[in-house]
């Protein structure tokens, strides 16, 4: 029974750390985690456990470990002096399997400094009015980009391309694709 309680407490601690460190939840504090999960543990022992789990989560998440890497890492941690117990390794493994994609996404979001593309829509219109008669009834591609940073309102950019500009853009994209393929093949 005590082993089950220890696993539940550790699972709660890992979830709390994820909320605090990766999901930026300001309501989760070290004091809250200690009082709710480890009320009988002396403060210094709790601090050692907390820092140990933070360090392990940081190592696992920064390496974006897959199942095999995680298993090898946790096995090595259980064999180290003062490392993990088998039960702790099992709880960490289960936690990472359940939270890997969310933590990865959070780290990607946190690492972005600039706006990112949130959405894109496009359509082709026929121009019905123009100062120049030759432009009437010519197709125009209209592209709308939604740009923004996490936690901020989006900005919308609307672009119009005539047939010549669309051809130019497609040509440039083909060049980019060729360069990417050349780099990928040389690696």
Your description of this structure?
This protein has 187 residues and is of the alpha+beta class. It has 2 domains: 2-111, no CATH class; 116-186, no CATH class. It has 6 helices and 3 strands; from the N terminus they run H-H-H-H-H-E-E-E-H. The chain has helices at residues 2-22, 30-37, 43-62, 67-79, 86-111, 163-186, and strands spanning 116-126, 139-148, 155-161. Strands 1-2-3 form a 3-stranded antiparallel sheet. Strand 2 and strand 3 form a beta hairpin. 11% of the residues are buried. The mean pLDDT is 87.
| DSSP helical segment count | 6
Low-confidence stretches: none
| Portion in strands | 5-15%
Mean pLDDT: 87
Strand order of the largest sheet: 1-2-3
Measure the end-to-end span. 53 Å
- Report helical residue fraction: 55-70%
Fold blueprint:
Blueprint: H1 2-22, H2 30-37, H3 43-62, H4 67-79, H5 86-111, E1 116-126, E2 139-148, E3 155-161, H6 163-186
Antiparallel strand pairs: 1-2, 2-3
Summarize it:
With 187 residues, the chain is of the alpha+beta class.
